[in-house]
Every structure is written in C-alpha cells, then in structure tokens.
Design a protein that fits this description.
Layout: E1 12-16, H1 21-33, E2 38-40, H2 52-63, E3 69-74, H3 78-84, E4 92-94, H4 98-108, E5 112-116, H5 122-134, H6 141-147
Parallel strand pairs: 1-2, 1-3, 3-5, 4-5
Helix pairs in contact: 1-5, 2-3, 4-5
Length: 149
C-alpha cells in the first residue's frame, strides 16, 4: 500500500441519494476548483431515489482502479457506507468531523468518504472532503491492521 495522497490523474467518483444531492453539487465544484477530475454517478435531482443505485457505481470505480477515491453522501451516511463496503478492497468511512476524516485516511487507508448530509453542515462537509483527500496513510502498524480487513 502506498502512503501517497490520491492520484489526481484519476477522477474522484461521487454519488449519493436525494438527501445528498445539494451537498454533492457543491462538493463537485470544490473538487473541480482544486484541480480534481470528477465522475458524478448521481443522483441528479432532489427526487426520491435508492442510495445503493449510486453507491455501487462509485464503489465499483474505486474497486476497479478507475477512480482515485470516492465520496458518497446520503442522509445518515450509513446506507452508502454499508453498500460501498460490500465491494472488495473498499474501505468506506462514515465521518462527521474533520478529525475522523483524517484518521480514516491515516489509520485505515479509507478510499471512500461517506458524509451524513443531515447531520453535518455543508461547510464541514467541504472541509472533510479536503482533509480526506490531502491526508496520507501512515502505514507502519496501521498497514498490518488494514491488510487484515
């Protein structure tokens, strides 16, 4: 495993349900302004949809190495995290503070950030995304643990 930050040559896959739609739209702009390529897997409106329909495509892109990392957003963050973690090699982390987003990378080498839109402010969500993407995996004793997942 590499302790480098994510490869900017690959897109960030992003998706979520209707509860995450507004956050997703803003986060896409933040990512693009930071120089990231973005692959938006939906949802594309506030209409009620099923979160697995968007979590699976994001997780699949990360699993297949077609995306540097993923960001998933739903009301609680739980549904998208549970769905993404069904995929081989995915370490989707539900985070609600910047510190958790940092630790998810540092200690768990998380490759998908899951955001609970109904429980964090948009400002905090943006900060978590930046922290997640800029934080290095520490490796060392943590690498041994991650390999056991």
């Amino acid at each position: 495993m590499s302790n480098l930050t994510f490869n900017k040559q690959l897109p960030i896959a992003i998706g979520g349900d209707h509860a995450g739609f507004e956050y997703k739209e803003v986060i896409i702009k933040v990512l693009k302004s930071a120089g990231w390529l973005v692959d938006d897997k939906g949802a594309y409106s506030l209409d009620s949809v099923d979160y697995p329909d968007f979590a699976h495509p994001v997780a699949l892109m990360v699993e297949q190495g077609k995306a540097a990392a993923g960001i998933l957003i739903c009301g609680s963050g739980n549904g998208v995290a549970m769905t993404a973690n069904k995929h081989h090699g995915i370490r989707a982390a539900l985070c609600w503070t910047e510190e958790l987003a940092s630790l998810a990378r540092q200690h768990n080498n998380a490759n998908i950030l899951c955001i609970p839109a109904r429980f964090v402010s948009l400002d905090l969500a943006e900060k978590m995304v930046t922290t997640f993407l800029e934080t290095l995996f520490e490796g060392g004793r943590h690498e041994r643990r991650v390999e056991k997942i």
